[in-house]
Specification:
- With about 850 residues, the chain is an alpha+beta fold.
- It folds into 4 domains: about 120 residues, Alpha-Beta Complex (Topoisomerase II, domain 5), CATH 3.90.199; about 80 residues, 2-Layer Sandwich (Gyrase A, domain 2); about 110 residues, Topoisomerase, domain 3 (Orthogonal Bundle), CATH 1.10.268; about 325 residues, DNA gyrase/topoisomerase IV, subunit A, C-terminal (Neuraminidase).
- It contains 18 helices and 41 strands.
- The strands form 12 sheets. The chain has a 4-stranded mixed beta sheet. It has a 4-stranded antiparallel beta sheet with strand order 10-11-13-12, with helices on one face.
- A hairpin with a 3-residue loop joins β38 and β39.
- α3 crosses α4, α8 packs antiparallel against α18 and α13 packs across α16.
- The termini are far apart.
Amino acid sequence: MAKKDVSKKTPLSSAADAPQKIVPQMIEDEMKVSYLNYAMSVIVSRALPDVRDGLKPVHRRILYAMWSVGLRANAKFRKSATVVGEVLGKYHPHGDASVYDAMVRMAQKFSMRAPLVLGQGNFGSMDGDSPAAMRYTEAKLSGVGEELLFDLDKETVPFYPNYDETQKEPRPLPAKIPNLIVNGAMGIAVGMATNIPPHNVGEVCNALIAFIDRPEMSVEEIMEYIPGPDFPTGAIIYNKEEIKRAYATGKGGIVMRAKTEIEEMENGEFRIIASEMPYQVNKATLVEKIADLVRAKKIEGIKGLRDESDKDGVRVVIELKKDSYPQKVLNQLFKHTQLQETFHVNMLALIDGIQPRVLTMRMVLEEYVKHRRTIVENRTKYDLKKAEERAHILEGLKIAIDAIDAVIKTIRASADKDQARVRLMKQFSLSERQAVAILEMRLQNLANLERLKVELELKEKRALIKELKDILASPQKILQIIKGELSGLVEKYADPRRTKIVKGELGEFSQEDLIPDEQTVVMVTQDGYIKSLQPEAFKLQGRGGKGVIGLTTKEEDMVDMLFSTRTHADILFFTSKGRVFQLKAYEIPQASRTSRGKALVNFLQITSDEKITALLPVSEFSESAYLVMVTKNAVIKKVSISAFAKVRRSGLMAVKLKDDDELRWVKISSGKDHIILVTARGQAIRFKETDIRPMGRTASGVRGMRLKQDDEVVGMDIIDTASEKAKCYLMVVMEHGFGKRTQMKEYKAQGRGGSGIKTAKITTKTGRIVHARVVNEGAFGEDVKGEFIIMSEHGQVIRLPFKSVNIVGRSTQGVRLMRFKDPEDKVASVALV
């Protein structure tokens, strides 16, 4: 055996023996570089979606694997394990749990607004139940999932080698459907996170169609098409301004509330039914949390709790105790549990697959249209290439058919097919592909009908080539194609919105949120004491009764005003000096029926020579509504109610008065109503509201009625001319307890500033008129349960059914409504309930 020559070194030994160059590196710098590389890998390859198709790599690989093995929407279901194995083996070298969990979420109807996968079997629930193992469940692509993959075979998107370079995978998908906005996305990367809410398919597609026509659309214009997120679980979202902020900046908090309803049971008790949950809320955990809060007595008034949800929908039943306030309990549930939750929008996605960026809604639409323009352009180029190739072949076949005898002679004279191909190319000026196609042509193609087919197909291909070239030459035509595809998506997949959007803001809970919005009666005395109490404090009696004591007044004090409202209403307090103050009804302390109440000076900054003469509960400060003000001397003024939307604690000037006049009445009007004024001596005048022009807050007003000596206005009301077609009455109550109703049609409209006509027969028995108002049978009639309360100067109160007031003519004295315990007592005020 020959001796091995050890003097010659192998390449390996020479590399090892070569001098090494070691570069010193600070460990901090090395850690920084390595961590940044790792962070970018997580951001780009794992956690963040691509703005173009709205998918993370794992989701894209799952859909592509299903597409590759033929799991289309019209195919049979196959085991989920088949899909997971395909994804792991070819595209995603990670754990099988991560792949299966991602596929499961794409199939969950409560997670995805438009599921991309159709699942068969147990795919989990809103209660946080885990899906069945992948060997038990089955899956295939949904119709929406297919829309993301169409045109993959037309060189529309680039393909990249997989992890071991044995396969290729697309990045991104063609995505005919705007998946990022439709299904949203969630992900936590390194140093950043994304949280994009899902939206309605039809709304998003219609917004894109409009955006293509008007690329300069503002956020407000986009919100005309996409008013807000549309969660798969439904529920209710609040505050359009916060939605607008999220769309305009890419970040914001959207408040979600469960859809709830308060139901009355047969035994008179109440229960709360929650039928839709906020997005991503675990229902089982929510029910446990409510039970814990009830046990800890943080929420009171609940006696029973059960989950009655089934395959038909969500139904959580919360039974309440008999003495509880249902709305108050519900507001406490909203405050302390996930029945109210905030979705923190962070629209972070990858631009061009590499650059993470927070996007506005307009930018998302813009990037999607840009992507689809590229897809349509690449698809058109592919179709053009294929059409030109086919037309090229057809042109060669046509040449051969037209000169078939010479072609056959050339072929027969050739030694083999290669020589025949070369001779055909030379003799007939053909390309190699054309010559090969002629050699492969069957004899049956020489029939006349087959020759016509070739000519017809060639004509069609030339027309198609022209059309495709026109498309590529016109960006506008490409956009029209995109619009057409979006319109098709609307027809196929649009469905009604599930999430209701409520105007208004809900953030931190205020005192109002924890107070039930219910009926209440407010009383004010002439000496400035105020209180509120429930209408049930006064039992219903018959006409002519003596009533009960409504409050204990101090000596020489009398009840001045009494009205019914809701606890959440704003109350405007107008003073005799023409100033206005504002309080919430719930800020007025509740008291017992016989208590005196609290002095108004505790709430309002009024002077000693000033008293409250008019109170007005207001639910909305609309630009189209007005306040009509009338003084005791019949001066009238009209001003927009919006001028009083924000009244400072120190008050505002409402009307400029003369020295001997006082502001007495303030009513809400539409601007097109009629107004009626009634005096203490029984005169009434009706005139059109349009006779009074709108004025500023500090204006003085104009004359409404000409008064006789020793007379003053005691009543003013607004007549809704539309409701007057039903039975409409003027009700008057006199100081000695008499009252009546007179049909409104007996009062014809006159010009403003006249003396009016007689409305009641005033005698010593009846006394002067102290109260007058318009009532409609539609609201308080014989067929509708309506009641009113009369209070005397000495605090005596009676509650009567509305139908107990007789209907009589204008010049009558009416019937007795109330008898007084004290002969010197008189009617002080009247309120409808």
